[in-house]
Amino acid sequence: MRNNEQRGVPVLRVIAMVFANLTAILSANYIVFYILDHFNSNMHFVVHSEFFLTKYLHLFLPLLLLLTGLFYLLVLAGGGFRKMKLKKPVLITIVIIDIILAGAFAMTVNARAFGWWPFKYEQQEQQPVALATLVPTQQPTEEPTPEATETPVPETPVPTDAPTLAPDETAAPETPTPEPTEEPTPEPTPIAGLLGDKFKEKFSDGEPVVSEPNTSETLEDGTVRTLIYTYAGREVAIELYHYQKGKLEYQIADLYLRSIEKLTAIYEADQGKAKGLVDFARGGNALIAINSDYFSANAKDEGLIIRNGMMIKNNPCRHADLCVIYQDGTVRCFDCRQDNIDNNAILASYPYHSFYFGPSILDADGNAKKKFNSTLEQQNPRTAFGYYEPGHYAFIGVRGTRGVKDINGKSLGNGKSPGLSLTELSELCAKLGMKAAYNFDGGGSSGMYWNENLFGHNSRVTGDALIIVD
Predict the structure, then answer these.
(1) Does residue 443 share a domain with residue 336?
(2) I want to staple 417 with a disulfide (CB 3.0 to 4.6 A). Which of 93, 218, 244, 399 is the partner?
(3) CA angle 293-298-304, nearest 5°?
């Protein structure tokens, strides 16, 4: 009986140790990435990166679990567990050791992958290249109207056999009085730009007009929509709405632009020079701004990155969706799982901006999606870009439960809004009638700036922003 107990005890100890080891490794990785995502603003991008979502989760973490499992089997085969007493302090000690080792492994692998000191990630940086400029469509010029000239009237020969009238019998033909004709009303000159004459009432013919109406209405689903800011200039018009339903808060800015150059990107290609959204907005004299895709951190060896007609990176797009804004104002989102993303074809079509983050939120027909190329589908603070037609766009900002900072960087505690899942965000964009929509960097990075106000979180720095200038 005693021998049977001695044979069984090591097996139970091994099972207990394996479970303790698994718990330790998963806990260590969770702790490491929670710290990276929440407390270190320069490393938060790790959990959104292609490397983490593919290689680390699908390769390095299972490999770590396999190696430690083999280690315990070797210890078992060598009789190491027979001498070890299954006591609580021993298990706690081993779990702590496992957490430290697994955490060190996680930090080492990611340090090597992302170029943190002292592991230098060597990469050939690409120099920005100016892309070809689309020649703007010329407005038809009116042909000059030729001045009227008198046409000589040929004399009618008088027949020789016509009777001769006496001087007093000569009758002058009656000249009919011409009736007045209405002059045609001249056609108005078409307005040049993306929208032409559309939404003309939203623009100003003179100096820009800024207002903060704060007028509210309750929608059918109980959402309270408040118009909080408007801007009307010659080429830019903005209408910013705040939405609230229960605790959920989000803002949507309707943007009307006659020139694609008013939709400007401002960025730091060097990841180490990341800054807050407010700094980007103020530095670019933005009327309104949102954070975008943080390409300097998220696109190391992947992604087609274009800003303001300059190609910054020309790498394959394998794991993240791509959004392209063309010089003619059109927008297309590419699903990397379904679309064959041809960088050369895109570059030949006069792109102005391209973003590599995502996922794309609507399908090709503008309908809501149920499946997304992302592992972060749960409710979260969100930043997104929407497209209706060339010249009509939207900035979307959704507040969540992360930490909130005001425009001066002062902490306001955690947000009370639950945020939106990708499915909920997709349904919202489809309901609003957008033809395309694209998800930007969210979480603590999410923020929207306008007129020296800030909505969102802004609790982390970012590498770039999409702004509207006039």
Answers:
(1) yes
(2) 399
(3) 75
* pLDDT value, residue 312: 94
Whether 226 is covered by a domain: the verdict is yes
Crossing angle, helix 88-114 and helix 2-38, to 10 degrees? 40
Give the domain extent around 250. 129-133+196-468
CB 355 within 8 Å of CB 440: yes
Q: Please write the tens of the pLDDT for every residue from 263-280.
A: 999 999 887 788 899 999
Q: Is residue 143 part of a domain?
A: no
Phi, psi of 452 (to 5 degrees): 60, 35
Please state the φ and ψ torsions of residue 467, each to the nearest 5 degrees: -130, 160
Closest by alpha carbon to 470, among 149, 211, 238, 132? 238
> Hey, how many other C-beta atoms are within 10 angstroms of the C-beta on 375?
11
Q: Are 451 and 268 in contact (CB under 8 A)?
A: no
Q: Contact at 8 Å (CB) between 72 and 17?
A: yes
Instruction: Identify the bridge partners of residue 403 per DSSP, sorted by sequence position.
Output: 414
Q: How many CB atoms lie within 10 A of CB 112?
A: 12
DSSP at 52: I
Helix-helix angle 61-77:2-38, to 10 degrees: 160
- Whether residue 410 is predicted with pLDDT greater than 50 in this model: the reply is yes
Count the helices and strands in the chain (H runs, E runs). Answer: 8, 21
pLDDT digit string, tens, across residues 334-368: 998 888 899 999 999 999 999 999 999 999 999 99
Under DSSP, the state recorded for 44 is G
User: Per the structure, how many domains does the chain have?
Assistant: 2
Domain assignment present for 172: no
pLDDT digits (tens, 9 = 90+) for 245-304: 999 999 999 999 999 999 999 999 887 788 899 999 999 999 999 999 988 877 767 899
* Mean per-residue pLDDT, 230-244: 98
